[in-house]
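Worked example 3. Consider a protein that binds zinc ion.
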Amino acid sequence: MNNFMDKIVSLCKRRGFIFPSSEIYGGLGGFWDYGPLGSLMKNNIKQEWLKRFVQQKQDIVLIDGTVIMNSKVWQASGHLQSFADSLIECKKCHSRFRADHMAEGRFVNQGKAKQKNQCPECGGKEWTRPQMFNLMFKTFVGPVEDKAHIAYLRPETAQSMFVDFKNVLDCSRIKIPFGIAQIGKCFRNEITFGDFTFRSREFEIAEIEYFVKPGEDEKAFDYWVKEWERFFLDLGIRKENLRRKEIKKKELAHYSKRTIDIEYKFPFGWSELAGIANRTDYDLKRHSQFSGKDLRYFDDKTGKRYFPYVIEPTLGVERLLLALLCDAYQEIKGGRTKTTKATKEVEVLLKLNKRVAPIKIAILPLVRNRPEIVEKAKEVYQMLRPYFMCCYDELGSIGRRYRRQDEIGTIYCLTCDFQTLKDNTLTIRDRDTMKQKRVKIKDLIKVLKEKLEE
Ligand SMILES: [Zn+2]
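Given these inputs, the predicted complex is written out as structure tokens:
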């Protein structure tokens, strides 16, 4: 299976999906750049998410909060204290334990294994060195580097939604139940990182804080678990590669009443792709307490104020991108077209969903040495660019160019050939079926729009 992961990593590098950050200087552990294709794909994922959960839901509004917030936010949220322990981490499963508990031979999570120095989660025996650990990246605001000016890069996006709760209510006049959505960068100074982009120190989260009346939280929780799963399935992830994991009571985060992780079967094993947490009224209460501002919701029907409960569906954008790549990757031994000469090659097909594929259409002149055909193909390319993410390729044999497009998941290849010069038609080749159809150039925009939206 690691072999499979190597193939994904290699494809990402070779075709411009993902590169190590600062690679010419040896990289920086746990940081990744998204290349020409990866950044388009990431953007498509975010657009799909916004379309689904903001545009199509009238009870959800979007915000865009800052990465650096007032330090008091992290006092109120509990992040400042709960991350400040001396911790060791199991190198195998990344579970963290307090170093003092480890030294005493007991664990925070009283697991099955009683034996000292053995991970109670996975039985692993290798540990990181104990270190005082705050997961938050620290910086200073302003020119003075002293205690009073310390600030942190946010380790989660959620706090903006709680801190802005009142502002959102006042400006949008929205009523409970409602949600605040956000996509944004988060930073965690993980002790160990790895499995390619899976565990990174800088990452993007797409999440909703959905506020409900206490007592209606459990129903909303179930609703959001289903909505989240449906989103993944609709983006093309195979059902058998998804599962729910109910987090045990004793392992829940300090604010959570219930959490379900949605796991994906990554090549390195089942791992968390997304989660749904019932954060109760913990955060709004804490921020009311710490800020001195009343963050209760006023119910104008009953005339009463209360702290709403919060359901938090959240997903890692890069993790979803990685899952989509793994799910779509196929190798066809001997090639897809049995009649071509290149039958000994292994061909890669990236069967990405239409909406997330970075390039929708490739325009190819059949041959490079006929100026009329090349000119026609370039004309079509210019015509389509305002409507679709397109690319133009004239290098190499047509078969090789089809394979290059299949490898990055391009949905349709348009080929201008000799017949194009006679009747202004060209062929549309479907990535998945490899079937070709002739279409009039003047109908192209309409036909492609229909095909891509069907
Ligand atoms: Zn472990």
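Take a moment to read the result before moving on. The domain at 3-70+136-325 is CATH 3.30.930.10 (BirA Bifunctional Protein; domain 2). The CA atoms of residues 242 and 264 lie 5 Å apart.
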